[in-house]
Specification:
Largest sheet: none
Helix content: 55-70%
Strand content: under 5%
Shape: elongated
Number of helices: 2
Number of strands: 0
Length: about 80
């Protein structure tokens, strides 16, 4: 696993955390327009980053969430607990 791949995974985790945090906040503050704008911004950023990652390194999720190039790429990457950050 190269440094760029690890960097992209870290950024994906950071943005996912931000989306989760904003999602929880919006559950109790649904009228907060700024929070909703932030959520939509980060959700879009996350989608683009995941798409970029998958183009270079293969799928992040299975069960129909991510497509794979031939041959099946899911088993090529190390499992999350095997990655040294």
């Amino acid at each position: 696993m190269d440094g760029n791949q690890i960097s992209m995974l870290k950024k994906i985790m950071e943005i996912e955390f931000t989306c989760i945090d904003l999602n929880l906040y919006l559950d109790t503050h649904p009228e907060d327009q700024k929070a909703l704008q932030d959520y939509n911004y980060y959700s879009n950023q996350l989608s683009m980053l995941k798409q970029q990652y998958e183009q270079f390194y293969g799928p992040l999720m299975v069960f129909g969430h991510s497509q794979s190039q031939y041959p099946w790429k899911w088993v090529d990457d190390p499992w999350p607990w095997e990655i040294e950050y």
